[in-house]
Amino acid sequence: MNANPDRNLAVRAFWEQEPCGTNMRVTGEAEPLSREWFETVERNRYLQEPMIHAAAQFTRHRGKRLLEIGVGAGTDHLQWARAGCECHGVDLTDAAIETTRARLALYGFTSSLQRLDAETLPFDDSSFDLVWSWGVIHHAEHPERIVAEIRRVLAPGGEFRGMFYKRRSLAVLKEWIKHALLAGRPFRSFADVLAHHFESPGTKAYTMREMRAMFAAWREVTIEAAMTPYDYQHLPAFLAGWLPDALGSFIVVRALK
After folding, report:
1. Contact call for residues 167 and 104 (beta carbons, < 8 A)
2. For position 225, which CATH number holds?
3. Exposed e or buried b for every residue in 213-252, given b needs 16+ CB within 10 A?
4. Is-contact 62 84, C-beta < 8 A?
5. Contact 90/82 with Cβ under 8 angstroms?
6. Are 21 and 39 in contact (CB under 8 A)?
7. CA–CA distance, 244 with 235 (Å, rounded to integer)
8. Which among 16, 103, 132, 225 could disulfide-bond with 74, CB atoms 3.0 to 4.6 Å apart, if both were Cys?
9. pLDDT at position 105, please?
10. Angle at CA 42, nearest 5°, toward 161 and 104?
């Protein structure tokens, strides 16, 4: 049982308003759920986060039984379907499930989609070859429970691929400057600022050491920091190519069971 069910309800309420990446600042005047609307969402996602393709390697997993945790607007889920995976997806919100189902239908694909809290997955042990979750698990009340559930439902030799937010990063530093330093509250921690001012309530981010600890039970783990446009936004353009990935706000994880 969750220690704070109200927190999960608040997270769900936040994302029910609109799946990640579907704000009108992105979609403009496009009709919601139209082909133009979805393709605008897709272009923006992979423009802002081009490392997704390298992290997922969509086309290398044909025929695998895939579970995506946090399907959002269905953009990555469509790539897995196109790649020939047997697709399953879960999300905390009805909005994401309905949006993803509509996205797949436009291109003639289907997936087994369920609205649920991924801290308890309704699948048997060893049910999947691959689990994908990009920028989702850190919004949960208990991310470590989701990681444990992922390991449980993966078959031996199966793999997890995904991304978590990194706490010691330029993007988080800028949020701290805005909401702590300039707000006259310099003693607020990065974690506190993230939990109260970054996307849904209770958003978490990790150090590299904390991420390694979360995946300590896994057989083989690769953990890498990644620089993003969110980190160098508002900085001089010439700095973009010089900033090291160690200052980036994404932690990209690949882990084998």
Report:
1. no
2. 3.40.50.150
3. ebbeebeebebebbbbebbbeeeeeeeeeeeeeebbbbbb
4. yes
5. no
6. no
7. 14
8. 103
9. 97
10. 80
Q: Which residue in the block uniquely carries the two structure tokens 């133009």?
A: 36
The whole domain housing 150 covers 5-256
Report the pLDDT value the prediction gives residue 168, as an integer from 0 to 100. Answer: 96
Token pair for 73: 């607007």
- 244/128 Cα distance (integer angstroms): 35
pLDDT score recorded for residue 15: 96
* pLDDT, tens digit, 9 for 90 and up, residues 67-108: 999 999 999 999 999 999 999 999 999 999 999 999 999 999
In 3D space, the residue among 85, 176, 195, 162 whose CA is nearest the CA of residue 129 turns out to be 85
Tokens of 156: 């031996």
In angstroms, the CA 58 to CA 62 distance is 8
pTM for the full predicted model: 0.94
Mean pLDDT of 211-222: 97
Q: Measuring CA to CA, how many Å separate 75 from each of 94, 100, 133, 185?
A: 16, 8, 12, 39
* Structural domain total, the chain: 1
pLDDT for residue 130 is more than 90: yes
